[in-house]
Every structure is written in C-alpha cells, then in structure tokens.
Specification:
CATH superfamily of the largest domain in chain A: Aldolase class I
Order of helices and strands of chain A: HEHEHEHHEHEHEEHEHEHEEHHH
Number of domains of chain A: 2
Largest sheet of chain A: 8 strands, parallel
Low-confidence stretches of chain A: 1-18
CATH architecture of the largest domain in chain A: Alpha-Beta Barrel
Helix content of chain A: 25-40%
Mean pLDDT of chain A: 93
Structural class of chain A: alpha/beta
Radius of gyration of chain A: 20 Å
Number of helices of chain A: 13
Largest interface: A-B, 61 and 61 residues
Distance between the termini of chain A: 6 Å
CATH topology of the largest domain in chain A: TIM Barrel
Oligomer: homodimer
Number of strands of chain A: 11
Strand content of chain A: 5-15%
C-alpha cells in the first residue's frame, strides 16, 4: 500500500500501516505463505483437497461436522502426517430439543416425493446428521493438535474455546455482521472471517436470525476491518484473482474461497452438483433452510422451487436433512440434484476444473502486487 | 494493469486490454475526467449537488422522476448553463391501472397511524407522485440536449430510446442480473450500470421481480463485465476510495456512488434522514416496497418494522407513496423518519459531511494507481 496521505476518503496512511501489520500477523499466525484459506466444504471434500491446498502454500481445511469418529480420526491423521498447517472446522450450534410434531409436518410435506420415488418414510430414523463441537469431540481431536480450529455459528462454550486455545490452536469463526465480528473478538478469536451475502453454504450468523442483517461483501468487509483489531479474512463472492485483489483493496488481511474449489479434481462434489455448476446462465442461488434447517446459500433446485426456499415447515437445524436423505440418494443415483444441497456462492461462473494445487498457484499472483497485502 | 500473463484465474492479459479500452471509451463517451458518477438520488438532491460533482471532474446527475415540468425545466437550465457534462435520470416504468380496492386496503392498514397523527385520510388525493419518461417529457427535455440520459427499471419504448439517442445523448440503464445486462446491451444502451445487492434506493430490476436474482456487487460486477461488450459502471456498496479500487479490480470501467453523497452539504437530505445515517451501529438497511410499491433499499424505520418491510398491502409502484405523504410530513416536521424512505446502501459507515466537490477530490486519488483503470 502506498504511503500517500491524500486518502481521507477511505484509505489513510495510518490504515495502511494497520492493514499491513495485521496481514503479516495473520500469515505468521497461520504459518502459511499465501493469505488464502480454502473454505471448509462439508459434504463435498475431505483431507485430500485440504492437503493439496496446504502444499500449494494456502491453508487447507477439513470440515468435520459430517464425519463420524473413525473418519475424523483417519482424516486428521492424514493431515497431521502432511507436516503443514491446516484447519479443522466444526459447527457450534446447540442441538434442538426433539420436536415430533415438526418432524411429522415435514414428512407430510415430503409425502408426495416419497410416493414418487417409492420410499417408505417409516424406514427413516430421525436424528441429527451434523454434530456440534463437544468435549467428546475435543477428546478425539486433542492428540492431533490441529494448528487452526474454526467454528461456524458462533463459538462453543468458553471452556471449550479455552481448551482448544490451550492446545496452541489458532481459533477462527465467521461473522455476518459488524456486531458478530465484535462479539467474536471479545470472545477470543484470533481472526474473524467476514462472511458476505454472496457466500455459499451456511450463513454463520449467531446473534440474530434476521437474514437482512448480513450485507454484501463490498459493504460488510470494510466495516468489519474498521470495527475489530484482530485480522479479518474476507469470504463471499471471491472466486478468482480479481476477487482476491478486490478484497485486499477493501482491507482484508486474507481471503477464504469455497465455491472456487467445488470443481477441483480432489473435491468429492457429486456429478449432479458439478453439472449444475457448469451452467451458471441457467441457474441462480438463494438462501434455503430446507436442506438442514438453517439458511444456507445453494443453487435453486426442484425442492426449493416447489416448497419455497425458506419455509418453516423444515425442522430446526440440523434435523431437516434427515427426512431428505433417501430422496436425495434416489435422485442423485439418477444424476439429479433435485433434493440435494447444491451449495454455491453467487459467483459461480468460470469455475476451474483442475487440481487444487494448480488453482492455488494461479490465484497466488493476486497477492504479488496488490494494495493492502504488502 | 500489469501485462503479467500468469493470471489464468481471473485476470488474463487479454482481459486487461479489453478493460482498459472500455474504460477509456467510457470516460471519452461521457466527456468526464474521472470515471465517477454521482448516482441520481430522487428526493434528496437537485442540480446543485450535480453541478458540484461535474465541476470536480465526475458526472453529476439530476433525478427527474419527482420533478414537475417547471422545476425540471429550471433544473435543466442550471445544468446546461454549467457547460459541463451531466446526466438526467428517469424511471421507465409502466404506470399501473388504478386499483381502488388495493388503495383502500392500504389506507386501512395505515388507519391507526392517521389516527395517531390526527390526519383525515379523506383529504388525500390518490395519484402517482413519480412519473415515467414519456413523449411529453421528451418534448420538454429535448431543447436542453442533455449529454447523458439514464433510465431505471429497464428502458422506455424503443421509439423513445431512439429519440433520445438522436439528440446525441449517451444512454445508460441499470442491470441487477447478467440477463438484464445482456438485454440492455441488445436494446442499445451505451453502458450498463451493474447494480449490486448492497445498493441503496430502488432496485433497477425489470425482467423479473424475484429479489433473490440480484447478487452482491462482488459477484454481479465481474459476471456483467464478462457478459457484455459495452462499458460497465459498478454500483452497490461503494462509498470511498477503497471501494472504488475494489470495483476497478473486479473489472469496472467506472463507478457510481449514491450513499456517499447523502451527507454532502449540497444534498437536500432531510435532518431526520441525516440523523439516522450518522448512527450506522444502531441501524441497518433492508429492501422495502412500502414507500413506493417497488422494492428499494432503505434504513429500517418504524413503518417497515410494524407493517413488514416487504408486504403486498402496499399498492403498485409508484402509488404506495401517496397515502404515506401526510404521515411522512407530520413525522418529519417532528424530526422523525418513521414514515420516510430513508434510502441508503448497506455501507453507510463513515459518510463524509462535506461539500460534494471536496468529496470527489478525495475519491479521485483512487483512480491514480488502481489496477484496471490504467
């Protein structure tokens, strides 16, 4: 960044110094060469993608919420054995009390689809697919000493956060508003992920469920940078070098890309999902609570069109997904994403179908001469 | 922009050339020194603000939709006499058929407020406050030969567009989706304004009323730049030099700022509106159709909270505003914006309370060394 002092309207020289030192602090803290984080993409990737990203100089991430104990252990083993920094990501929600009436209502709404696909809903066991971070999971994770632990939907209990920090782990979490960024800083995160409206997958909101509170990245990011003293990681709508440079211009100290990795060779993105991502002109994204019970951004599919993307008929997070499981499986087996969470950010044109390491190498040059990253 | 050719992931050298030539083409077309447009802000500014912006090297704009013939003529006279480029902006909607039932329902919903303020609703004459661009208005405007004419909500009839172009005017309009950008290019606009989710005031959508189709600026802008051959003006969430540099990094050929000018000395923004804008931490924006009948982004106020910001009880655009008029007047007289359209983009922290020319001068340095603007 220039030391030019004319910039009273947005970039003063004091801002420049602060930005620069927070950027350096963040890459040093994360132990990475490039201030580029691969967003944890629950359901469409494991350690294989993360390892490629970390080897290329970024921060690879393992989404843990959908993994059982055995898989989590083997994935963490693979990541530890790599010998490079990585991130493991957990949800920090409070599981809801069982609500039979709501589960019944949901299954009634899905009844025509069960009939269409010849599914007997009585065979579907209720229960949560996604687990929050708990003491038991901390017991499992602790021996691996993951260098970076991130949370979505706020943070777990202060005791659990303290425990993770005692391991020496860097702690991250997402903010969808300035208020959430301030809250996370006050509760001990080492850096805040500013998640803008454009971002795919679950919104990380936790202080309010009002969806209108989350601004677009262009508005949220600079306000978060101004509001907190910890480094800020930009997320939402960033898919290429141009987006990275834009985020850095807005004061980001690092960037987090998710959608950009969905088409990578190492991602386990389904064929149905990939097929839709290849047709940006024919599809658009919106927030839906149907897939899990919490609003998340995905490409509009048949279920969302017919039920309404945001509808209280879906049980609370994470229980909505259970009743959808067999529908999703049947549809995907036929190459259709009609009942699947087709997570994607709003910017999914021109996704690269290449190896993750090659993608990171291509993105790397955005940091060479960008304002704010020096 | 660098001639570096490593940037397959977003900024190739061929993109660089195209960007550069479209930028130069646009400033040349508009006759301005800085690729910076002051967004037309209907209801909160007239020629005085526009003249200051044009004198400082940007493109000042006059919003015409709320002006009667006499005022429009005197404002255009002031702008013409300035001897510099300016823009005059019109709405391109089709006025709805009268709908007494809906008007009645709206007044019934507002009845408790009329009672609270001692207003007799029988005294309120129905009718539209905002006029679309018509042959009659074209007759009035033609003698002034405005150098730039822009439209919101699409374009007027092909015959009217053709007429405006015969004057030698540059024609602009706003796109909220890639589809709308392509449509506008096919229908003869000289440049497209890519209006992202963050933008304040009326969304410019015209091909669909589905609000989820409009992406954030970070996602919309680069997709529009790729989709059309005409120059692209970025709008939505840009309030300072950092935002301008981000937009240029995303491929914008010029930027349009609205909210940034709301607190300028020359704006006629009400005291109630200014007071709310000074407290970004206490307020947020959302889309509402209550104020006019079409979704527009404004700061949440009492009417929006109590009626619901998006509610079909409000008559079609532009008729919703009529029944609100006396409520708004009474509330504003008491220093309150409870019933006023408090238009603002999502990024309204740190607005500058200075003269518009000084603001433009401060913003100008963003173009000095920015990627994409060279």
């Amino acid at each position: 960044m220039t030391s030019d002092t004319r910039g009273a309207a947005g970039l003063s020289s004091s801002t420049a110094v602060a930005t620069s030192s927070r950027s350096a602090a963040l890459t040093s803290l994360l132990g990475i060469r490039l201030p580029l984080i691969q967003a944890p993409l629950a359901g469409v990737q494991g350690s294989r993608l993360a390892i490629e990203v970390s080897r290329a100089g970024g921060l690879g991430s393992l989404p843990a919420a959908l993994l059982n104990a055995e898989t989590l252990r083997s994935e963490l083993t693979a990541l530890r054995d790599m010998g490079l920094p990585y991130q493991v990501n957990f949800f920090a929600h409070t599981p809801p009390a069982p609500d039979d009436a709501r589960e019944t209502r949901w299954r009634e709404r899905l009844a025509p689809y069960y009939a269409e696909f010849g599914i007997d809903p009585a065979t579907i066991q209720p229960g949560a697919v996604r687990q929050p971070f708990t003491e038991a999971i901390a017991d499992l994770v602790e021996p691996f000493r993951p260098p970076v632990v991130s949370f979505h939907f706020g943070l777990p209990s202060p005791a659990l956060v303290e425990r993770v920090k005692r391991w020496g782990a860097v702690v991250l979490s997402s903010a969808t508003t300035v208020d959430e960024a301030r809250w996370l800083e006050a509760h001990g995160v080492d850096a805040v992920i500013a998640q803008g409206w454009e971002a795919g997958g679950h919104r990380g909101h936790f202080l309010s469920h009002d969806l209108t509170l989350q601004p677009g990245t262009m508005a949220l990011l600079p306000q978060v940078v101004d509001a907190v003293k910890v480094p800020v990681i930009a997320a939402g709508g960033i898919v290429n070098a141009a987006g990275i440079r834009a985020a850095l211009a807005l004061g980001a100290h690092a960037v987090q890309l998710g959608t950009a990795f969905l088409m990578c060779d190492e991602a386990t993105t389904s064929q149905a999902h990939r097929q839709v991502l290849r047709q940006p002109d024919r599809h658009h994204t919106t927030l839906t609570n149907l897939m899990t019970g919490r609003p998340a951004r995905g490409i509009v599919n048949r279920l969302m069109r017919e039920v309404g993307a945001l509808n209280d008929v879906a049980p609370e997070f994470p229980n909505a997904s259970t009743a959808l499981g067999p529908l999703r499986a049947k549809a995907e087996a036929a190459g259709s994403g009609d009942f699947s969470p087709l997570w994607s950010g709003q910017n999914f044109a021109g996704l690269r179908e290449i190896g993750a390491a090659a993608l990171v190498a291509e993105l790397a040059w955005a940091f060479d001469r960008a304002d704010g990253a020096e």
